Amino acid sequence: MTAARVPPVSGRAVDVVVVGAGIVGAACAYFAARAGLDVLVLDRGPVAGGTSGAGEGNILISDKLPGPELALALLSATLWRRLGEEIGAERIELEAKGGLVVAATEAALAGLAALAAEQRTYGVRAVGVPAEGLAGYEPALAGGLAGGAFYPDDLQVQPMLATAHLLRAARAAGARVRPGVAVTGVLRGGRGGRVRGVRTAGGDVGAGAVVNAAGTWAGEVAGLAGVALPVAPRRGFVLVTEALPAGTVRHKVYAAEYTATIASDRAGLESSAVVEGTRAGTVLVGASRERVGFDRGGALPVLRRLAAQAVALFPVLAGVRVIRYYTGFRPYCSDHLPVIGADPRVPGLLHACGHEGAGVGLAPGTGALVAAALTGAPPTLDPAPYRAGRFA
Amino acid sequence: MRFSFDGREIPYVDGQTVAAALWAAGVRSWRTSRERAAPRGLFCGIGACFDCLSTVDGQPNRRACLVPATAGMVVTAQSGPGAPAAPGGGPAASTPSGAPAGRRCDVAVVGAGPAGLAAAATAAQAGLGVVLLDAAPRAGGQFWRHRAGDTGAGHRDWAVFAGLRAEVERLVEHWRQTEVWFVEPGFGLHTSTGVVRADRLVLATGAYDRTLPFPGWDLPGVVTAGGAQALLKGSGVVVGERVVVAGAGPFLLPVAAGLLAAGARVEGVYEAGDPRGYLGHGRPALASLAGKLPEAARYARVLARHRVPYHTRHTVVAARGEGSLSEVEVARVDQAGRVVPDSSRRIACDALAVGWGFTPSLELPLALGCATWVGHDGSLVVAVDPAGRTSVPDVYAAGEVTGVGGAELAVAEGRLAGAALALSYLRPAPFGAVELTRLLSRRAALRRFAAAMHAVHAPPAGWPDQLAGDTLVCRCEEVPYSRVVEAVDELGATDARSVKLFARPGMGWCQGRVCGFATAALAARLCGRPVGEGDLAAFAARPVAWPVTLGELAGSAGLAGPAGPAAPGGSRRGPALAPLPEPAPEQQ
Asked: Each residue of B498-532: b (16+ CB within 10 Å) or e?
């Protein structure tokens, strides 16, 4: 990014500065502005310029293990549907396409059934699909699979448009959004070292609170406030094919092993194909996971593996062309849970980060929890599991 | 000889492409677009735009401008995206059998145009083991595109080509019909016909027509200037009976002259620049210009003989027609590059060849991390020193990819890069210091001339004023101008990449090859600032350099090997060329 001249940021003090104009920052800004707060969103890059602009836009229930992440996912899915009604589902390509999880072996199928049974206790809708029923969901799926489970409440959204429209709605509620303005310092000095604003390339801005929604780079922002936050990059690639006729791939389809891939702590390459069509006709093939820092190199072996896994699920894809791929860096926390809420070490600093590959799906719930923490309203969900203090 | 198109018999001449044969038979479109169901046919003519997709022998989405016609072939029109072929049908690429899994060599040269041929020949003359890779069935690139058995009539500097070609045939392993779809550092070139591993690279990937959108530019019958030329030189087919030639740059003249020689009626040449502008560029540019004058005068005589009007400071403002082109509207532009009100006139025609110069193919240099800059014509170009060295060690670039400047310059740069390669192996260059000095000074002079040329033939500054809200900016994804405006004004896009993410221009088959330059300019303009390197790079970076099937990618053991008569059996294989162990080792 070239060092552009940064026009001055208005000196008017605000209630909240949100650092990060990705999907999570957009959701925080939206809910905070709706709660009546004066909000300023700053990002050193453009809107959705980081991980939000490099993913598929998953809003998944199916891959969440029972516990606090599933609870947040369910809250977020409800909020996404509500946002879809408000913003216009069409405009953000919000689609209740449903997820089909398939198992290659009887053992994997048994594991899948056990997971679904547990998820159902949270109110998740999951339909067991016998082997002979799979083609009814996905005619082009490979034969020889043991069976699967269908999750009608898995959603998909176009993540860049969703970010932009959430920010637009936040602006309509009074928020200001300033992409291209880097936060270079967190100003402290109130009582108890309280946050009193941020320093930017365009000047200082007073703020009663700072929300760290800097995604994979949230550790840097926390560092500006003088605290450590263990958010690390976990690299992923998404292959994008040429446009195919509608209905070639109908749902979000992935192998049962995918859930284990997410939960893994290994630094090395893990991959399990997640295949889905988009409104633009392209088919997206994710998802690999590696902890290699911010290195973009050495893509080919990973791309090959994703391609092979996708073709194994959908043999018809063998003759379909890949036209590009995305590289993204998911914000990874070692316990695979996001960090949401006030940092006990720095009064006035809140975090909304560390969502790994589920930032789009978990953004609205995160935004709602952050807004509640900012206004002192009772949270819709017990925020304790996501607290920043857990790494201390 | 015939093939079938939607049940109709289409005659063709050996060596013609499917697109050319269809065009010659009067077929102007053979696909409808996905969103608007608009008719599409030939546009760029050289495989860059993906407008001409058709289903060939059951394989969907084949570029008809690249597929050679063969007897009995079954071609069908496509509506929207073609249905994927049944599994087991194999990859669509031509992959003849019996070839090696891959090659290891000293130097891989990508692109067999003027620069690549010169670099490959020079490096090979110095004793290096060279593999030359090119997408076309014959050497020559766009400049020396020709038909089998062509003796050079109507071509420029054919003797230079013949000499380079002979040297390449003698000394270099030439992989034809080979598209490089991925490059790895170090260097691994993954291609449609196999893997090449090389210690040094020369990127001579050339350029393709630079286009600007205007109302009606997606009508069949509107083609790029280079597309019209490729149709003629590659397949002997004239783009229309009544043709308007427009845009900017000296290239419009040979296009018009070629069409006239082939019997077309050229209704006019409309040049946006004002060649008198050369006078303002000082003696060095004028000295180079003097060398170009005889050629320009020759074209002027051809135009005059056919009573073809040549208008400067004119631009196309609209194209119209029902299903295909029937009329073009042109208008005068003022000193500031704005269309003069009430100056437009309509011209009946069945083809428009329009070009705004050329823009480099940057897939491979950007994938390797080579430094770039915004060149004199406003396109992103690779930064090199006079020896062709890029910012990445052992990667050289030559010719148009380093800034459009014509074939003579490209040959000089290719030879300089070849000599530098020889020296990098501590071998003497195949020519002496006198020739080296001459090449360096010739290169400098031609670069100066190119800079003057770009200043004179710049697109008129006011070109975006012609866009209506529903004018397509991106042909593949059918993104209208209004959506680009919305991305900036409503959705908060602050650069070209954001515009791309929010509105999808450049996201389709051609990956921004056609719309990238214009969309980057529009995005910057709407953001109220000049276009920057980052805006242009957002559309020029294509880590998958050419589409590759998931099957090929997965196997990537799609290691068939070189195609056609240039199979390595017929070429010299020096000690530095060795088959790769199979399979090609993965890094992980």
From this structure: bbbbbbbbbbbbbbbbbbbbbbbbbbbebbeeebb
Boundaries of domain holding B446: 102-208+359-453
Please indicate, yes or no, whether residues A133 and A170 belong to a single structural domain of this protein.
no
Q: Answer yes or no: do B352 and B375 share one domain.
A: no
In a 3-state reduction of DSSP, which class is residue B270? strand
State mean pLDDT over B496-520. Answer: 96
β-pair partners for B107: B130, B200
Q: What is the phi/psi pair of residue B23, to 5°?
A: -60, -45
* Angle (nearest 5°) at CA B512 between B509 and B513: 90
Domain termination site, one of B515, B531, B547: B531
Q: Which H or E run includes B550?
A: helix B550-555
Q: Is B587 on the interface with A (CB under 8 A)?
A: yes
CATH code for the domain in which residue B198 is found: 3.50.50.60
pLDDT surpassing 50 at residue B572:
no
A244 and A140 in one domain? Answer: yes
Beta bridge partners of B311: B270
pLDDT category at B275 given cuts 50, 70, 90 is confident
CATH of the domain at B38: 3.10.20.440
In this predicted complex, what is the ipTM? 0.93
Those of residues 535-574 in B touching chain A at CB distance below 8 A are: 542-544, 547-551, 553-556
Task: Read off the pLDDT of residues B117-165 as tens digits, 9 standing for 90 and up.
Answer: 999 999 999 999 999 999 999 999 999 999 988 889 888 999 999 999 9
Task: State whether A194 and A176 are in the same domain.
Answer: yes
* B434 three-class SS: helix
Distance CA B52, CA B63 (A): 6
In this structure, are A222 and A339 located in the same domain? yes
CATH label of the domain that carries residue A47: 3.50.50.60
Domains in chain A, number = 2
- Backbone CA torsion sign across B212, B293, B116, B392: negative
Count of other CB atoms within 10 angstroms of residue B88: 9
DSSP A143-169: S---EEEEETT-EE--HHHHHHHHHHH
Structure tokens at B464: 């975006």
pLDDT in tens, B418-452: 999 999 999 999 999 999 999 999 999 999 999 99
Q: Do A317 and A272 sit in the same domain of this protein?
A: yes
Contact A49 B491 (CB under 8 A): no
The minimal CB distance from B542 to the residues A269, A300, A324 is found for A324
- Interface list for A 176-215 with B (CB within 8 A): 177, 179-180
> In sequence order, what are the beta bridge partners of A37?
none
Residue B5 bridge partners (DSSP): B8, B75
In the block, tokens 């200001």 appear at A176
How far apart CA B302 and CA B308 sit, in angstroms, is: 9
Query: What pTM did the predictor assign?
Result: 0.93
Mean of all residue pLDDT scores within chain B: 91
Boundary residue ending a domain (A296, A312, A332): A332
Residue A365 and residue A237 share a domain:
no
Q: Structurally, how many domains does chain B consist of?
A: 4
For chain B, positions 466-485, list CB contacts with chain A under 8 A.
477
Average pLDDT of span B181-208? 96
For residue B502, whether the previous peptide bond is cis, meaning omega lies within 30 degrees of 0, is no
> Same structural domain for residues B299 and B223?
yes
Q: Which amino acid is present at A288? A: S
Interchain contact, A307 vs B586, CB within 8 Å: no
- Give the integer Cα–Cα distance in Å for A226 and A213: 16
pLDDT at A260: 72
A142: domain range? 99-152+232-332
Instruction: Looking at the structure, tell me whether residues A248 and A269 fall in a common domain.
Output: yes
Neighbours of B342 (CB within 10 A): 7
